[in-house]
């Protein structure tokens, strides 16, 4: 195992043995659905930086894979939608984390009459070499793990997720991102990297890693402030602003003209007719918003019409629209 992965192992072994409430806090509320109660210990071991649980991904009891289980909170939330024996597979490389989450699931049984620990199958394994069959998963998720990986390992981790997903399956993620370039001292600080503070990519780089792996559709669902690295406390001359994003990468075939990346852009036609048809599959009804991917936004923009408005990216895409 490379040195930074060993450091990561030790950081999360410690976080399993002694829960660290502030480790990866974010502005997300801990949501509970009707009949779903999250044990306090799971909330204290919420080491993610957003949510990967989106109800619209979770119809028809999807077979779910969760890599990097932490305290198990999101696996419990996924199990709420699945409710079948081994319906959610959880993989972690840290023995102590697997043990801690196992205990947390037993506690979750006492709070949630519908929940059985057997809904979650915990397995020891590495994100870089998943012990999971090809094309067997509907929804795969990871929260605040991929940002820790260096480039070659990140490529492997994404390729593994792609391999195990069924066609049209989705990889749902939350990770820190940073639009500034961090210096090498920060980048190579293994502990900061393990703590999800110095490994992040820009959104553009992050999306490219996903599309390079073959994911034909990308949805950026949320973008939020996350952390500051300031010169007084970290090895940096400038203030570094880190955000967190929620992203879904869908194993759709790659379109011939490149991936569909939804960053929350919307097109609105406001001309003299009832609608505008670009004859490429996009019909804009008069003064109705239509969510479009960045590729389509660019194509509509390049028509230079004075009756089509294209919004900026909101980084809040929530389904609908067309590519
Ligand atoms: C930042 S924590 C996130 C935990 C959880 N996803 C959450 O949102 O609370 C990272 C998790 O990934 C696990 N982990 C670290 N490196 C891993 C690897 N190479 N393969 C699998 N799991 C790993 C850690 O043990 C830990 O549970």
Calculate the terminal CA-CA distance, rounded to whole Å. 41 Å
Q: What is the count of DSSP helices, taking H or I runs of 4+ residues?
A: 9
Instruction: List SSEs in N-to-C order.
Output: HHEHEHEEHEHHHEEEEEEEHE
Helical residue percent band: 25-40%
Biggest β-sheet description: 8 strands, mixed
| Name given to the CATH architecture of the largest domain | 3-Layer(aba) Sandwich
Strand order of the largest sheet: 3-2-1-4-5-7-6-8
Walk me through what this model shows:
The mean pLDDT is 95. Helix 1 (3-17) packs parallel to helix 4. The chain is of the alpha/beta class. It folds into 2 domains: 3-250, Vaccinia Virus protein VP39 (Rossmann fold, 3-Layer(aba) Sandwich); 264-310. Helix 4 links the parallel strand 2 (88-92) and strand 3. The protein is globular. It has helices at residues 3-17, 40-44, 73-82, 95-111, 151-164, 184-187, 190-194, 203-212, 294-301, and strands spanning 64-67, 88-92, 120-124, 137-143, 165-177, 217-229, 240-250, 260-262, 265-269, 275-277, 283-285, 290-292, 308-310. It contains 9 helices and 13 strands. An 8-stranded mixed beta sheet has the order 3-2-1-4-5-7-6-8, with helices on both faces. A 3-stranded antiparallel beta sheet has the order 12-9-13. Helix content is 27%, strand content 24%. Residues 5, 8, 12, 24, 46-48, 67-71, 74, 91-94, 97, 126-128, 143-145, 196 line the site of S-adenosylmethionine. S-adenosylmethionine binds next to helix 1 and strand 2.
